[in-house]
């Protein structure tokens, strides 16, 4: 009986050790996944902040330029791409708005297809 109890105890300890080992592997994997998710969330937040900054800077630059009507234009930025919408008086004003937006740090591209020209 002692032999059976001793064997059972050894098997229990071995099973517990294997179980703990497996659990620690899962915990490490979960920590790794959580780290990836945290990093991804931080990158998304940084991109959103950068996009918001770019949009603000584009609109402020329009307001500072006497040849572009900031009241008739809007800008939105996603992943560094600025999308302009609204109406301008001339094709030259549309081109200038696009040029101003392209000159902002962090802007990768400018889409002005949503800007209509009143004279046309």
Automatic annotation (TrEMBL):
Keywords, comma-separated and alphabetical: Signal
Gene3D superfamilies cross-referenced by the UniProt entry: 3.30.1340.30
Signal peptide per UniProt: 1-29
Domain BON: 50-119
InterPro entries with a match to the protein in the record: BON_dom, Lipoprotein_DolP, Transpt-assoc_nodulatn_dom_bac
Name the record gives this protein: Hyperosmotically inducible protein
Native source species: Halopseudomonas salegens
């Amino acid at each position: 009986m002692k032999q059976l109890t001793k064997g059972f105890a050894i098997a229990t300890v071995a099973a517990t050790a294997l179980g703990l080992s497996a659990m620690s592997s899962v915990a490490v994997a979960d920590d790794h996944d959580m780290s990836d998710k945290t990093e991804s969330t931080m990158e998304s937040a940084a991109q959103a902040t950068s996009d918001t900054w770019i949009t603000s800077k584009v609109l402020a630059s329009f307001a500072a330029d006497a040849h572009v009507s900031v009241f008739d234009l809007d800008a939105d930025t996603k992943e560094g791409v600025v999308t302009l919408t609204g109406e301008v008086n001339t094709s030259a004003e549309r081109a200038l708005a696009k040029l101003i937006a392209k000159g902002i740090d962090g802007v990768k591209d400018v889409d002005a297809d949503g800007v209509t020209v009143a004279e046309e």
